């Protein structure tokens, strides 16, 4: 049923997203570009199916990974600004944005860099 209701859209330059998760009363998912298309498709499908089947209680700022060796992604929840509310593609449940957690430095990593620089002066 998932493949009949949810469509994946995008490309490596502009990014990727799902459309149709409102049929399951769940947010869609968005990825930035720069990811191999096959990897993006797998990630979008894995995330959406995980939400449908497992019904996790996800929160803004959570991280997720689907296997022990897979990259970790940071979750951010947003209002669906891709479409007008009257548009049939608009998702009232919003969208999850997945960003590579390893690409972002935590506040502690940033503070450590500042302190190292301060110590050497």
Notable features of this structure?
single chain; 121 residues; alpha+beta; 6-stranded mixed beta sheet; 3 helices; 6 strands; 23% strand; globular; disordered C terminus
Explain how this protein is built.
- The protein has helices at residues 2-5, 37-54, 107-119; strands spanning 7-11, 15-19, 28-31, 63-64, 73-78, 95-100.
- By secondary structure, it is an alpha+beta fold.
- The protein has one domain (2-119).
- It is globular.
Explain briefly what this protein structure is.
With 121 residues, this protein is an alpha+beta fold. The protein is built from 3 helices and 6 strands, in the order H-E-E-E-H-E-E-E-H.
